[in-house]
Amino acid sequence: MPAKRGDTVRVHYTGTLKDGTQFDSSRGREPLEFTLGGGHVIAGFDAAVTGMEVGETRTVTIPSSDAYGDRNDAMLLRIPRAQVPPNVSPHVGQQLQVGRGGEAVNVTVREVTPEHVVLDANHPLAGEDLTFALELVGCEPAA
């Protein structure tokens, strides 16, 4: 029976970028479990699993617009070095959590100079088309 909206599915996946770099995989651990249409995974992943049958495999490429969106330069935050807490020694590539508007935001340090630090609040996979090798290993119909 094909997986449909509202079903709880279990999926093994391996995600790669255009150049073949693997960015994530469920292999070697428990499969990813989520409710189809529940908004728990990126839209393109949800759509790719919909209609699969248990035991089926498929490989799909999800455009950035259905994944983590395009990169947005407005999400680059340039802050004066003097505003960086003294106990933080930022370096390029470092992942940090910063408070913004009363909530924590994950950022990546993109640039560090004596005068400023550039933080990138885009998702690390923003702007990337993502390829997933999928295997539906379980499906519980919606109640």
From TrEMBL:
Its EC number is 5.2.1.8. It is an enzyme of class 5 (isomerase). The keyword Translocase does not apply. Its main location: cytoplasm. It catalyses: [protein]-peptidylproline (omega=180) = [protein]-peptidylproline (omega=0). Keywords: Chaperone, Cytoplasm, Isomerase, Rotamase. GO terms for molecular function: peptidyl-prolyl cis-trans isomerase activity. Pfam families: FKBP_C (PF00254). One of its GO terms (cellular component) is cytoplasm. The keyword ATP-binding does not apply. One of its GO terms (biological process) is protein refolding. Residues 6-89 form the PPIase FKBP-type domain. Also involved in hydrogenase metallocenter assembly, probably by participating in the nickel insertion step. This function in hydrogenase biosynthesis requires chaperone activity and the presence of the metal-binding domain, but not PPIase activity. Belongs to the FKBP-type PPIase family. This is Peptidyl-prolyl cis-trans isomerase. It comes from Gemmatirosa kalamazoonensis.
